[in-house]
Write a structure and sequence with these properties.
By secondary structure, the protein is α+β, with helices and mostly antiparallel strands. The protein folds into 2 domains: 89 residues, Arc Repressor Mutant, subunit A, CATH 1.10.10; 111 residues, no CATH class. Helices cover 34% and strands 20% of the residues. It is built from 7 helices and 5 strands; from the N terminus they run ββααααααββαβ. The strands form 2 sheets. Strands 3-4-5 form a 3-stranded antiparallel sheet. Strands 1-2 form a two-stranded antiparallel sheet. A hairpin with a 7-residue loop joins strand 1 and strand 2.
Amino acid sequence: MNNNGLNVGTFVPTNANENVGTFVPTNAKRRGNRNGKLTPKQARFIDEYLKDLNATQAAIRAGYSPKTAQEISSETLSKPIIQEAVQKRRNELSAKAQMDQEWVLNNYKKLVDYTLEEIYDDDGNLLPISQMSENARFASYGLRKVKKKAITINKDGSKKLSETNMHELKFTDKKAVFDQIGKHLGMFKSEEGQESGNKFNFNAPMQINVGLVEEDADS
């Protein structure tokens, strides 16, 4: 509690969406075993928690009773010794995988750093993937074959049904990516006037741009 009578501490999420968790006062006591180290079960809990950030399931996989797993996981994550160990493991994993904020931002940049000329030819046809730029290929996903049906009416009034094989290719929406980068860098203000940075919302809806390239029906 600070001089203004307010509790000061940290919110520790207990699920992957970070909307459920535990408030930990900054003066919370360290708790491990008697020599100040993690118990084997606590170490196992941390290993399991870092797999999917689901604290309750991590507690169950670590050997705690399913009946008390939610309570135990919340209590475990509230301990400073556990928080420090989790952060240390995260740092180690990030260093090992060479993934940090700079890496994330550089890859987000790739998702928007390309032009239409790198996707379409002069006639407006989608280029083969091998001819697209590296960034355009990085931003594309969801390649699949689709069939386009068409009915042609002949001069005698008869109808002919034809099918054309096509490829559908999706690209991430640039505006959505720019919004995420801007929020992370604190460029925008929330309704309360607070900076909304340092947190990506990977569940935000995205508009998808679709391109089609025609293929001979016999191929």
